[in-house]
Design a protein that fits this description.
alpha+beta, Nucleoside Triphosphate Pyrophosphohydrolase, seven-stranded mixed sheet, six-stranded mixed sheet, 16 strands, 23% helix, binds zinc ion
């Protein structure tokens, strides 16, 4: 029996985020200077990946990372008492020299399927937070420069008349299967690879519950009327910082009207067909397939079929 999150890519980080300790500047300095601490370098949001012996995060020891102390860096957390940091190295001249045949800066979406689940989860956190700092250098309230605080978990405006505090954003997205008896509703966007059908999805809007957003999206994109909505699983999605919320919604009829502005197609598939499409998800020659296991669409379809 699957547990809710045991195999969701980008979840399951082994790191303790040390929320109660990281506000202590002296403690944080000691972690930054500890010989055991480990540093993950990101250039243009691409982590340095070591490829020898299977892809894994290329953690730098403190003695090599010391010259990078002036770079923006944030505490990812502790594992067995060892601090792990992410460092944005975009402004370091010659940083490309660190890359060679066995160590490369590789974008997260390409490399994540090759990493262990714990490393992919650490990477999701590192990418989302690094991206947020890069995009939020100025106060949204007054426009003055802001600076990182709390080991990277907030930013503070430097204007003494303002001093507004800003927190990393996470954008919730609902992603859902409409179901009607043995039928499951899937759709495709024009930019999908040929043969790929996926769960419908959309950003939650202010003032909505998860259930309301699921019903609204199914109604808008497929003209589908639904009754109860059930949560299945969620997934951090670091492009740049969404939280995917996977649900199943029971349709009250099988009438579908596709919104052609949003979707190229949406239609019902028998659950046996969906099972075949799951198995074919990484086979680009398959006539019909679901997205690969990295996606929450794949994971909620798998869970739904395994439980019902
Ligand atoms: Zn301000």
């Amino acid at each position: 029996m699957l547990k809710p999150h045991d195999t969701i890519p980008f979840s399951g980080s082994p790191l303790d985020r040390a929320g109660n300790q990281r506000r202590d500047a002296a403690w944080l300095d000691a972690q930054r200077n500890a010989s055991t601490s480990r540093f993950l370098l990101l250039r243009e949001l691409k982590p340095l990946i070591a490829l020898e012996g299977g892809a894994h995060l290329a953690w730098f020891p403190q003695r090599f990372a010391a010259p990078l102390a002036e770079c923006p860096n944030l505490l990812l957390g502790l594992e067995d008492g060892v601090a792990h940091f992410a460092v944005d190295v975009d402004d370091i001249p010659g940083i490309d020299a660190l890359a060679d045949d066995n160590n490369k800066f590789i974008d997260v979406r390409s490399i994540a399927p090759q990493l262990s689940l714990p490393e992919a989860a650490i990477l999701a956190q590192a990418r989302s937070m690094t991206d947020w700092h890069k995009r939020h250098r100025f106060c949204a309230q007054c426009g003055a420069a802001s600076q990182a605080e709390d080991a990277g978990y907030s930013r503070r405006c430097t204007n003494d008349a303002c001093r507004a505090q800003h927190f990393p954003r996470t954008d919730p997205v609902v992603i859902m299967l409409g179901v009607y008896g043995d039928q499951i509703l899937l759709g495709r966007q024009p930019q999908f690879l040929p043969g790929v059908y996926s769960a419908l999805a959309g950003f939650m809007e202010p003032g909505e519950t998860i259930e309301e957003a699921v019903r609204r999206e199914l109604a808008e994109e497929a003209g589908l009327a639904t009754s109860d909505v059930r949560y299945i699983a969620s997934q951090p999605w670091p492009f740049p910082s969404s939280l995917m919320i996977g649900c199943v919604a029971t349709a009250t009829s099988d009438a579908v009207t596709v919104d052609r502005h949003e979707l190229e197609d949406a239609r019902w598939f028998h659950r046996d067909e969906v099972a075949t499409m799951l198995r074919a998800s990484t086979d680009t020659s398959a006539p019909l397939r679901l997205p690969p296991p990295l996606s929450l669409a794949h994971q909620i379809a798998r869970r739904y079929l395994s439980e019902s």
